[in-house]
Amino acid sequence: GRYAFQNQPSITQWNLARLAESLVQIAPGNPEDAVGKFVEILETFSSRYEKYFQIGANAKLGLTTLEKEDSVIYLDLLKIMEESQLDFTETFVILA
């Protein structure tokens, strides 16, 4: 569904865009300037999300560096957890 775990980045960005649309109405100054600023912010969302998602994932796995390959390890673990119907929290408690 729309809010499934793997859809969280895109639905979060969509929700932020809807919020920005609402805020344009009350933003000070020219609405077009506000739209430009919101668009600029939203365009950086994906890269920021990926970075902070990886930081959080690495912390859960006890990894201290930030390497591109690390996200594959975490995503593979999530896939195994889903296929095995493992509890998200309990899995990471056991790994700790």
From TrEMBL:
Organism: marine sediment metagenome
GO molecular function: ATP binding; metal ion binding; nucleotidyltransferase activity
Keywords for the protein's UniProt record, in alphabetical order: ATP-binding, Magnesium, Metal-binding, Nucleotide-binding, Nucleotidyltransferase, Transferase
Name assigned to this protein: Selenoprotein O
Alphabetical list of Pfam families matching this protein: SelO
Similarity field: Belongs to the SELO family.
Cofactor entry: Mg(2+)
